[in-house]
Design a protein that fits this description.
alpha/beta; two-stranded antiparallel ribbon; 6 helices
Length: about 250
Amino acid sequence: MKLFPLIVFVFGLSLCLHSQQNPETDKPEGIKTPDFVLAFTKTTGYRHKSIEKGVHTLRQIGRKNNFIVLQTETSEDFNAQNLKNYKLVVFLSTTQDVLNNQQQRVFENYIKSGGSFLGIHAAADTEYNWAWYGRLVGGYFKSHPNDPNVRNAKIDVLSKEHASTAHLEDSWSRSDEWYNYKNINPNISVLLNLDETSYDGGTNGKNHPIAWYHEFDGGRAYYTGGGHTEESFDEPEFRQHLLGAILWCLGRE
């Protein structure tokens, strides 16, 4: 991305100025280099209105937790030289085919080299013909309730040993568009499971994962099904859920 060198230059300049003020230290005391996160928001199918709110939220969270979020909808940014700048790539409600074959290979190599992936909501409605991606994200979108598509449901918290769920009670009730999934990777570690008895429209049965993680092909991958609505990104518990997922992807938890 053209913006990336400018961000690095500005941050580097601030470090230099701080270092000049503290000539007795090799590194500016109290300053740590932030991690860079790429938020990919390209859509070739349905486009969620919540995307811009989601990017804004990720940036807000990043400012308080020492990571910088840059957004792109340009598939050409999936090249080896650019991706090496990022510790995490977020697919934020991407839809359908967003990368060509060469870009797909570059992203596979990025993960195999220790990169991380976070999928939010419609990231599961993406790249149905790219089997590697399906295993990475952990499952594909199958369907969701209609009339209305956004409903209140109860989520069972299966584990609080993860940074993304440690703040939650045993049961979490909230409103969102609840996806049903297909081709679920059996190797994922499920953290949150939808209680289909609490709403109409579920088709996965008792085992209905809605947030999970796994180490995959040399890297880390996390997916959460929340985030359809703009209001989701105002919910303190959901924001903390996202932060915990990001921290795990960045290797901080």
